[in-house]
């Protein structure tokens, strides 16, 4: 239990320990004041305990904690080394709170026991149970998983866990009511469950400091990032901040119950924001429109925008003057521009044919790529790492990229030495540090395919007669060609072919390694 604002613990003869500046804490198995007082009487000992929060006053949070006396805590140096990977004050840093006990109770006892005593328990990301394999725990920042026992997972283990979880939805997901944890099932061809992924959900306070000014500006904000980087965690705190601190009417469209947790009563981590659950994931776009029409929100929050219908629903909502906060598939803004399904979120891309005079005036080819509409989300934030964000003003960034230039972006890093715990700098996009090599992995070299497919695209969302035409062209690409372009000299990943090749002048053919189908035609025309 984290007791904030106390100089000492109830009934504790020792002084509380100040952790990272201004927070006084004592770590006990949370229940009530009597139990907390009793736990603190055992000096110079360390025990372990789990608490399901049934007796905690007000039932605001339930915690999973290790019981540590002050002597042991002093030896440990910082509480975060033993309990929480991120536990800091409200000066631009973060505080992590979880309900790990609720998740551990679903596991067989011999699998649960190693996690209860594990020194990296606070960094636990997920527990994987696959039939016929050893149970595995995966931790943040540790590449390889750790086996929890020598014995392989049996059908009885899975049956017991499934019985404790309850019913799975059509998307093979289930949750623990009142928590942010998620359990996902893997089924065989007969529909029987042969694997479980138990994902730990945590409520994190403090990440809002990284982009608070962007959120309070009233502009719609889209978060991009690889799976597991913390997009949903950030969006959850944005909901709480907008609802509780700015007193706005916030409605969350929670398709998989990841933002507000499982159960009919949403998790306290979202504050006063309202949550609409979605019975069928394919109908998320309809629920988004329903939220605006029926509940008069000032802010609509959507996690995992992934279809053309959802992108169009976002545009409809934005045009009604409602602020949108969302996440989308993709690591970089470039990924979004190249995605014909979601490109409309940043204004879409269209091939434009210029007149002779205009082409000469611009010094480009006659066919160029341009942004075709105002972006639905004026601000895009790439979450490269948990403490490293890259912010784009979308109109400028997209236009510059389409011209083959590098836009200037805002880099936001957590830095305890700064007054607000945040360092902000401006850099050209191609000079932004890449702490986890996200950019290198996310960028690809589908230049020729993208340009060729662009001719068949209807706006930015695919050919209406065949919505999969663009994807089929990519899928049909030969393996040898893909490997050659990924490993050869063209692996610098030039993206916008027409505009970049034109930068050398209208009569200079682009280099063979980066020219696409229409680029070759333009080069031949230029030589004539």
From TrEMBL:
The residue stretches assigned to a coiled coil in this entry are none
Q: Which part of the chain is the AAA+ ATPase domain?
A: 217-373
Query: Keyword Zinc: yes or no?
Result: no
Top-level taxon in the UniProt lineage: Eukaryota
Name the CDD domains on file: AAA
Q: Write one Gene Ontology MF term.
A: ATP binding
- Region annotated Disordered sits at 502-528
Tell me the keywords, alphabetical order: ATP-binding, Nucleotide-binding
Give the matching InterPro entries. AAA+_ATPase, P-loop_NTPase, Spore_III_AA_AAA+_ATPase
Q: Which Pfam families does this UniProt record tie to the protein? A: Spore_III_AA (PF19568)
Can you name this protein? AAA+ ATPase domain-containing protein
What is the source species?
Answer: Volvox reticuliferus
């Amino acid at each position: 239990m984290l007791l904030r604002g106390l100089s000492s613990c109830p009934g504790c003869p020792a002084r509380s320990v100040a952790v990272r500046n201004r927070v006084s804490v004592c770590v006990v198995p949370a229940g009530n004041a009597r139990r907390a007082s009793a736990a603190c009487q055992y000096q110079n000992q360390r025990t372990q305990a789990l608490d399901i929060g049934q007796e905690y006053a007000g039932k605001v949070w339930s915690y999973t904690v290790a019981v540590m006396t002050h002597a042991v805590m002093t030896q440990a140096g910082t509480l975060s080394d033993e309990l929480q990977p991120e536990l800091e004050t409200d000066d631009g840093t973060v505080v992590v709170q979880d309900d790990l006990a609720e998740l551990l109770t679903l596991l067989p006892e011999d699998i649960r026991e190693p996690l209860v005593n594990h020194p990296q328990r606070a960094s636990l990301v997920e527990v994987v149970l696959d039939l016929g394999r050893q149970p595995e725990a995966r931790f943040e920042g540790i590449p390889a998983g750790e086996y929890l026992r020598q014995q392989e997972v049996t059908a009885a283990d899975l049956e017991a866990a499934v019985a404790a979880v309850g019913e799975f939805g059509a998307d093979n997901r289930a949750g623990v009511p009142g928590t942010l944890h998620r359990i996902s099932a893997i089924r065989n061809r007969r529909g029987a469950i042969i694997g479980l992924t138990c994902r730990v959900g945590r409520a994190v306070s403090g990440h809002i400091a990284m982009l608070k000014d962007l959120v309070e500006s009233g502009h719609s904000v889209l978060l991009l990032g690889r799976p597991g980087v913390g997009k949903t965690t950030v969006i959850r705190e944005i909901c709480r901040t907008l609802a509780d601190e700015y007193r706005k009417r916030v409605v969350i469209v929670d398709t998989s119950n990841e933002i507000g947790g499982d159960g009919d009563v949403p998790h306290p981590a979202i504050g006063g924001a309202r949550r609409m659950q979605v019975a069928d994931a394919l109908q998320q776009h309809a629920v988004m429109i329903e939220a605006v029409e029926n509940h008069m929100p000032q802010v609509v929050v959507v996690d995992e925008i992934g279809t053309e219908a959802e992108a169009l629903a976002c545009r409809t909502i934005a045009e009604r003057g409602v602020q949108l906060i969302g996440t989308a598939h993709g690591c970089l803004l470039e990924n979004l521009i190249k995605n014909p399904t979601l490109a409309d979120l940043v204004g879409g891309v269209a091939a434009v044919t210029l007149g002779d005079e205009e082409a000469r005036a611009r010094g480009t080819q006659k066919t160029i790529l341009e942004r075709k509409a105002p972006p639905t989300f004026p601000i895009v934030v790439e979450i490269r790492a948990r403490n490293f964000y890259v912010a784009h003003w979308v109109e400028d960034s997209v236009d510059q990229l389409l011209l083959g230039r590098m836009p200037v972006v805002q880099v936001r890093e957590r830095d305890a030495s700064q007054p607000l715990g945040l360092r902000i700098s401006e850099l050209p996009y191609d000079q932004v540090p890449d702490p986890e090599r996200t950019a290198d992995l996310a960028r690809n070299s589908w230049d020729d395919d993208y340009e060729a497919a662009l001719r068949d695209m209807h706006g930015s969302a695919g050919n209406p007669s065949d919505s999969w035409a663009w994807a089929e062209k990519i899928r049909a690409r030969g393996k040898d060609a893909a490997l050659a372009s990924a490993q050869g000299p063209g692996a610098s990943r030039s993206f916008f072919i027409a505009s970049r090749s034109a930068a050398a002048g209208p009569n200079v053919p682009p280099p063979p390694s980066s020219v696409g189908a229409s680029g070759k035609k333009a080069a031949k025309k230029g030589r004539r």
